[in-house]
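Late entry, evening session. Most of the bench is empty. Finally got around to the prediction I had been postponing all week. Sequence below, unchanged from the version circulated by S.P.
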Amino acid sequence: MLPQLPPGFRFGTSTASYQIEGAAAEDGRGESIWDTFAAKPGRIDDGSTGEVACDHYHRYAEDVALMKRLGAGGYRFSFAWPRIQPTGAGPANEKGLAYYDRLIDTLLEAGIEPMATLYHWDLPQALEDDGGWLNRATIDRFADYAAIVGERFVDRVEHWIPVNEPNVHTMLGYGNGMHAPGKELLFDALPVGHHLLVGHGRAAIALRAAGATSVGCANNHAPIWPASDDAADVGAAKLFDALWNGLFIEPILLGRYPADLAPLLEEIVADGDLATIRQPLDFYGINYYTPMKIAAAPEDAPMPFELRDLLGYPTTDFGSPIVPDALREFLIMFRARYRSALPPIVITENGASFNDGPDEHGVVDDQRRIDFLEAHLQAVVTAIQRGVDVRGYYSWSLLDNFEWAKGYSQRFGLVHVDFETQVRTPKRSFEWYADVIAAQAQHAG
């Protein structure tokens, strides 16, 4: 069992609206870019969509009961923008707001504190039709949406995150086309990243105006390792590190872009943008999965770097190398580099895909997930012991769900979902995590 964590350390779990809710055409919800993207043949590995997903929209009470059984102190979920504003503008859809009223009230009745994300990639399709995050006007629409959500729920939601993983959304959604909306703009996707960051700042301002007292972020970060000691590989890794990490850390914490990238953004950044992005944060959320190995690309390649396989480590069923020590490395480096600019840290996502199903006794024996979670929690403990202020850990994910371009082929959940019957089966990892939470609570008590 893990060493005792600091008093008040919170264990939770995370999900995202499009990945679990389903009810895609119910109660006035508008179309999102993921509805459009998933409907295009060849975009999703198994040809599936999030139309039904985990049917959480109808089964949220059952899922909250599972969280209570887990002992989770917090639950990170996201609002579906098209459920609240079907076209991304105009008055709110009352049925959409009422759904989240029900979810939040049920969480609070179970003693679980909500951590709400405003945007986990399901942009209303109507806004994408007007240019999406390439269009600066989307920032204003996002600020309006944040004000609506904040006014309605700020009395009951403890922690707020404006934008989930702006780097992933920029690079996979608009850079290489692997995610919705499927644009392949390469470096021309940089305005998307900037607009998402300004949107983060504008939303933080709107949430605080509504009375929010805890606003943070949820950024995907990873150590970037050069493929060799060769100067070209080291240089390529440095550039990729600036793009993946620095481009989204430095504006938020320091009010500036990394020096290597600032010239590429000069024509995009308007007066006041960097001050808007650098809003005071009450916590810095880190989503961690795996480090990345980068090499210099051939001269005729479209990008100056390329991702190489990180060999010598076990992998998840997604093919990601399992390197818990890289989380410890990143946390310690992060604190050393940013010091007084860095607020308390929360691990807002950490988990892995292991596709174990129920055996003949109905038991899902996912020992590999237990090993993964235990090793990564130990990495967090070690970082705390080295002086890093980490306040919480939210596992990804509560439920097996629609895993974006992989469809239902990858299972990240603590709870197995049979997507034909919607039967939920807590895995052995669920019981293990519940034991960890109970043990920590006993220490604290």
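Two things to note before I forget:
The chain has one domain: 10-444.
The mean pLDDT is 97.
Will write this up properly tomorrow.
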